[in-house]
Structures are given as structure tokens and as C-alpha cells.
Amino acid sequence: MSLAVVSRAALLTAASWAALAGVALAQDGSRATELDEVIVTGAPYGISARATTIATTVIDEEALASAPASSLGDLVAGLPGMRSTDFAPGASRPVIRGLSGPRVQVLTNGIGLIDASSVSPDHQVATDPAEASRIEIVRGPATLAYGGTAIGGVVNVLDNRIPTTLPDGLDGAISTQVSSVDNGRSVAGRLAFAVGPVVVSLDGVSKESDDYDVPSPSISHRLADAEGIPRGPGGTQPNSFSELDSRGLGLSWIGSRGFIGASIKDLSSTYGVVAEEDVFIQLEQTREDVRGELTLEGGPFQRLTGSFGHADYTHTEFEGPGNPGTVFQSDGWEARADLVQRTRDGWNGAIGVQTLSRSFEAIGAEAFVPGSEIEEAGIYTVQRLDRTGWGLEGGLRYDRRTVTATPLSGGPEINREFDNWSGSAAAFIKPMPDLFLGISLARNERAPSEVELFADGLHVATGVYETGDVTLDNETVTTIEGTIHYEAGRFHGDLHVYASKYDGFIDERDTGAVFIDGGESFPIFQFVQTGAEFRGFEAEAGYDLWSSGDRALSLEGAWDYVDAETDLGPAARIPPYSVSGRLLWTSTPLDATLEVRRVGEQDQLAAYELGTDAYTMVNLSGVWRPFADRDISVFAEGHNLTDTEAREHVSFLKDLAPLPGRNFRAGISYRF
């Protein structure tokens, strides 16, 4: 019996058990406090963020309520080890430790998005941060629960569309905001209410922005000098508008031992493609999800969880109004089931299965990759032993991935199968209550993506002719990482230091040949495999300068750095160092933050790259709660107050589109 058949059988069993239970574990108001302390991404049994070797960052519901109305990539950019592909406001995907695309998995409630965002940097992620109640980020390859496409890290967008608890009356929130740099306006809201054991949830997001203002000409001085072209007048970034609407409905049956729920979401988005004048993209996705959980009353396992998601996605590129061009379609499903072990003498663990099936098709003159069928199934386990003063963590995963496609150049259908084995082991000690020291070793494998295997055409978004290689093998990375958590008195700090060695790193390199299209020349790039080494760190620290009652003044700082070399030279689009300092005032009615962020120059370049200048950005933000119950918050921000020209080195568009200029943003949120 194949692994895929076993996985599907286990998932159907999980869904059946959850449906028979038809109930959910009732929880009280302490849930919010627990969520603030426990990370569920990376280990289904949850781990305290201050007691794990996994590098994590959390954006909680309170922070999201006053967060900018930006894309997912732009929202997380600037967090430790994080950047954004910054392909204009409509399409920006997270970059983790210099890795992006198929190496970074973006999830919704632990299930893949089933979109086409990893195919090209101008493709939007089919979820919006305003839908989230919490976003969890795992940096690095310690992500065995999610497979080889998470070799660089995971961004998990958690929402409450499928309720897991009974609300006390009406539970919901609404938030609206405006911004000056792009004439932006947005509103987002959610509502949940119970009818007996059944909970209904409704949510929606609507946002719109015009072309954003820039502090300099769009074209960088480096590109102008290299190409001998004028920089232009600047003022606004052409074709950088965006619009998005999302609507969701969820239903759960909740009781004492579990829950079973389902949801549906429609997302539509229209945004300009900065790389191509007058080109814009319309995206439509309909997604259905089913999730359940059953608390087990005996035996070695504490609970069984199951998740299923199906999505139908269409992405159409218009070359002017009413003139549709290339169409990308993705239809597929993903499912998983996890058995969480009962805690025994400090021993936690889980075993799980995951499977997916996806059909991808690109239609049109600019389709640079053929349609493909992707099947994947995996089985994994993660374990943790926590004793007084020390502990161990580890896990193992096996995946089989099958990719089938007919080359654009013609010929017979090609079928590639990949077997991936990944494992990790970690040890930690707690020599004193305030200090955690850990070291981990992970070996992970990733199968090549459909683009890396089968690309064969002009990719206008990146400005190159891309050529895949159907003979590519698995990409393997071995990573060692050291972790320190410290919190005592007025000081707290976290440090992660890592080194990764790749065997068969899949890189895209200039062949030196050119492709002529309509009299214009484009370089031909080829996906190749080579050795590579990535090294870096992320450090965070904070110190409480003064406190009295509910009032406090504190100082925080962060610093990250990554260096990446391949056997062919420096890796492309690796972010330079960044360092930031923040002065924070907190009190019951008012919080305020002054931030200064410095991003360094990048002069370690691949052969075809241009360097990127350093910049310093100053930001000021505040949240005012005029009422004692804190349900209403008024927030405001001044971003890039000095109107600095800033360019994101990891972006394909860095020399064509700087980051937005000075922006004033204000809004109000109400939670009930």
C-alpha cells in the first residue's frame, strides 16, 4: 500500500472521529493569555516561545488590530530575519533568512494556500493579514510538520473563521484606517455568535489604495548609471495601486470533547504590476476548509486533530483594460491529521500525516511554465522531553512528491518522483530559571518546484528568459543553530546563530546568452545545482528603563545578518544587515513607540546584480485607549518621517521602485 493511500485513509478516519464527536473542548477567558505564550506552529502540542530551540516570532491580535493595511510580506518585513519580496503593494511575499519562493511555506491554519504565489514574485499571496487573529513565524528548517517546501521557514496565518470555543454573547471586532502616502482606506471586521452548541462566524476585509508617493525618482541612480538612462521625475510610483475584498463564513459544532467546523472564503484582488506599464492582475480564489478536534479519554494519545482545505484559484494578467493576457489557474486540496500524545513525565510528542493534490495551468503568450499535476504525501513525528534543568527535542519526516508536466517545447509527458527524508535533533539546558541555552542540528530535503524543473519562456516580471532543468535532484541542507533566551530583572534577550550547508542548492544563473523578443534583448537564465553556505544571526534585547504603576519606559533593539555564498559566487538577492532601536512608553491609556531602523549597503553581489545603498528610517506610532475597558483603540503612525529613499535588496524591482515615502496613517478599532 502506497504512502499516499495510507495518508488519505488516516485523514478520513480523523475526520470521521471528529464528526462523531461533534463537540469542542470548552475554554474560558484565559485562552488569550495562553496563546500569547505558546507557539503552535512547528509542534502540534504547542511550545513556550521562551523554552524552545525553534526561532519564532508572533504577531498577536492586539498588534494586528492597529497594523498597517499592507500585504503579508510587507507586514512581516523588518521583524528579525524577515524581509519582503516587495513586488509593489499588491504582491509581496515573506523572505526568511534570505530565502523565498518555494523555500518559504505560507499557511492558513496549518494548511497551504494552494495558490500560485511561489511561481512568480508578481503573484499575490491569497490571504490578507486583516483576516488573521494571530500570525506565527518560524525561521529556519525546524519545520518537520509541514514538509520540504518549508525548508526555509513558515509563516502561519491563524484565523477564527472556524470557531473552536463558545463565545460569551457576541464576540467580534471592527477596524478602519486611512493612509496618506497612497490615499489608502481599509475596513475589516469579524463577528461570532452561538446558537446552542453551534457557533457562526462572519468576517470581511475591504481595502483600496492608489499609486504611492516616492521620495525619489523610481529608477535608482545605480541602474541609471549602468544603463545610461534618465531617472525620471519621481513623485509617484506608476501602476502601484491595489484593491482587495475578502468575505468569509464559518460554522462550528462545539461541545465538551472536540469540535467539527467548516468555512468558505471568497477573495478578489486587483493590483498593478510595477514592472510593466498598464499591466494589472485580477485574482480570484474560493476556498473551503474543514477542521475538527477530538479529545481522547484513554490510551497514549491526548487528542486527534484533522484539517482539510480546498481552493480554486484564478489569476489573470490584463495588458490594458479589457485585454486579458496570461491566465494562471490552480485547483487543489490539502489535508492533514495529527495525533498528539498524552504528556508523560515531561515527554510530549505528536505523529501526523499530510497529503496534497494540485493542478496548475498557465495559459497565454507569456506562460513561461507548463501546466502540471502535483501529488505529495508525508508522514512525520516530533518529540520533546522536558526535565528539570535540561531537555531534548527531535523529529523525523518522510515525503514523496510527484510532479507531472508536458514541456512547453513539446515532446512526451515527463513524470518526476522525489523521496525526501528530513530530521532534526536538539538539546537544551536551563542552568538557572532565567536562562535557556539550546543547540539543534537539522537535515532537510526539498524537491524541485515545477518552475525549477519545467520553466521555458520569457518571464516578464523578472525580465529574464527562464530555463528549467528536468534532471534536477533533491536540494539538501544541513543546519546547526544555537539559541539563547534570557529574562531576568529589567533585561530580556534572545539570540539565534545559525550556519547552513546546502548540497544541490537550486540556483538561477545567467548563461551569458540572450533572447530577442520584438527587438528587445533579455538574458537567458538557467536553473542549476551547486553547493551553498548560509550563515547569520538574529538578536533581540530589551531593558526596562523606568516603571511606576501601569506606566513604563523601555528600550528595545534588534539586529540581524545573513551571508550566503554558493560555489558559483555570492547568492543573489541576499538582504544586508539591519539594526533597529525602539523607545517604548506603555500605560493603560496610551502606548507610544519611536523607532530608528538602519539597513546596510549590500555590495556582496551575484554577477548580474546591482548594489543597494544603505538607508536609515525613522518611525513614530501610538495607540490611545480613551475608555477604561480598553475596547476602543485609536491609533496613528508616522512612517519614514524623513522621507528617505529606501530600496529592498531582495526585490526584483529594487532599481525600478523604491519603498513608499513619508506616510501618515490613522485609524480606530473596536473589540467586543
Which helices and strands, and how do they pair?
Blueprint (H helix, E strand, L loop, with lengths): L2 H19 L9 H7 E2 L7 E2 L6 E5 L1 H5 L6 H5 L5 E3 L9 E3 L7 E5 L2 E2 L21 E6 L13 E6 L12 E9 L4 E12 L2 E12 L3 E2 L6 H7 L7 E2 L5 E13 L3 E15 L6 E17 L5 E19 L4 E18 L5 E17 L8 E16 L2 E16 L8 E19 L2 E12 L3 H5 L1 E4 L4 E4 L7 E14 L2 E27 L2 E29 L2 E16 L2 E2 L7 E9 L3 E10 L15 E10 L7 E8 L23 E9 L1
Parallel strand pairs: 6-9, 26-29
Antiparallel strand pairs: 1-2, 3-8, 4-5, 6-7, 8-9, 10-11, 10-36, 11-12, 12-15, 13-14, 15-16, 16-17, 17-18, 18-19, 19-20, 20-21, 21-22, 22-23, 23-24, 24-27, 25-26, 27-28, 28-29, 29-30, 30-31, 30-32, 32-33, 33-34, 34-35, 35-36
Question: Can you tell me about this structure?
Answer:
It is built from 6 helices and 36 strands. The protein has a 22-stranded antiparallel barrel. Strands 3-8-9-6-7 form a 5-stranded mixed beta sheet. It has a two-stranded antiparallel sheet with strand order 1-2. The longest helix has 19 residues, at 3-21. The protein is mainly beta and 672 residues long.
